[in-house]
Design goal:
223 residues, alpha+beta, 8 helices
Length: 223
């Protein structure tokens, strides 16, 4: 037997063409069960105001489809090479904007790959560990986000006394915007404070300040 025949035999021995129907069904059922588990975790962790039901439903389906592809690749060398070529030209143009959505997407795909490789215990153990880490980090309290103070005045001279009020009532502040108009000046200040009511009252007490609005925002958190 030549070296070529040995290599060919060794390569072909990696493929299992005798997959039975029960084995295939077990693989797909396990992928579906773990995919549904991922769906439930996604519902628990999701913080978005608009919950994407279609994305959540796609998670167990993606796990099953991926498991089917891996089982097919394991069964035949010719099909595996053809499928690799076919999948290499697939392009997805839907942008995933949420980092957590991307994490769940990769989780579902990896579960499908692991189940398709018949490593069911690894898929289950990895999913449990991922859940524990995700939920543990999910319940870690966030740093308090900075506030935005909108000040409307009829005279640009309000800036100097405003600085004095901000220094006395905040731990951090930064003027983000100045808008001068014929009617006066509008200021937007990013700040952190525990004396919200006192701050607004003192800002309104500044002469020629017509309005002061304090609000939260969902931008970057300043530590």
């Amino acid at each position: 037997m030549s070296i070529q025949d040995v290599l060919k035999k060794s390569f072909l021995s990696q493929f299992n063409s005798e997959l039975s129907t029960p084995d295939i069904l077990v693989t797909l059922i396990v992928a579906a069960v773990i995919g549904i588990y991922i769906f439930v975790v996604y519902r628990m962790v999701c913080r978005k105001a608009f919950y994407s039901k279609s994305f959540a439903i796609s998670l167990p389906i993606i796990a099953m489809i991926t498991a089917s592809i891996i089982v097919t690749i394991q069964s035949n060398a010719v099909i595996s090479l053809g499928m690799v070529g076919a999948l290499s030209i697939v392009r997805f143009r839907t942008a995933v904007k949420e980092p957590m959505d991307l994490a769940f997407l990769f989780w579902a795909i990896s579960v499908g790959i692991i189940c398709g490789a018949s490593l069911i215990e690894l898929a289950a153990e990895a999913s449990v560990l991922i859940t524990l880490v995700m939920l543990g980090l999910h319940f870690v309290p966030n740093a308090k986000p900075a506030l935005l103070l909108l000040v409307n005045g009829t005279d640009p001279g309000i800036q100097e006394p405003l600085h004095g009020v901000l220094k006395a009532n905040t731990s951090y502040y930064k003027i983000k915007s100045r808008n001068r108009t014929g009617a006066g000046i509008d200021l937007i200040v990013e700040l952190k404070t525990k004396r919200e009511e006192e701050l607004v009252e003192q800002v309104l007490a500044i002469p020629k300040v017509s309005a002061a609005t304090l609000m939260t925002h969902d931008g970057e958190i300043t530590y």
